[in-house]
Design brief:
Its main location: cytoplasm. Its EC number is 6.3.5.3. The protein is α+β, with helices and mostly antiparallel strands and 81 residues long. It is built from two helices and three strands. The chain has one domain: Mth169, Chain: A, CATH 3.30.1280. 33% of the residues lie in helices and 30% in strands. The longest helix is centred in the C-terminal third of the chain and has 15 residues. The radius of gyration is 16 Å and the shape is elongated. The relative contact order is 0.33.
Length: 81
C-alpha cells in the first residue's frame, strides 16, 4: 500500500480572504513576523500497490478532475515514504 499526497492551493493571483483573516489574527496574537498566509487543502490518497509512475499519473488525473478547480487552484502530487 502507498500513500500519495495532493496539495491544492489557490493560484497566487486569486484573492484569499481566509488567508487574510489568518494573517490579521496572527498579528493580533503577537506574531508580527508573519507577512503572508495562503490557505489550501491537503488530500492523502491511499493506493493499493506501489506509488510508481502510473499510479502518480492516475492520482494527478484525479486531482485535475475532482480535487482541484483548475480555474482558480493549482496542485502538486508526491508520494510519501
Amino acid at each position: 500500500m502507498a500513500t500519495v499526497i495532493v496539495d491544492v492551493m489557490l493560484k497566487q493571483e486569486i484573492h484569499d480572504p481566509q488567508g487574510e483573516a489568518v494573517l490579521s489574527a496572527s498579528h493580533r496574537l503577537g506574531f508580527g513576523a508573519v507577512k503572508g498566509v495562503r490557505q489550501g487543502k491537503r488530500f492523502e490518497v491511499e493506493l493499493e500497490g506501489p506509488a510508481d509512475g502510473a499510479a502518480l499519473a492516475a492520482v494527478e488525473e484525479l486531482a485535475r478532475e475532482l480535487l482541484a478547480n483548475p480555474v482558480i487552484e493549482e496542485f502538486s502530487v508526491h508520494a510519501t515514504e
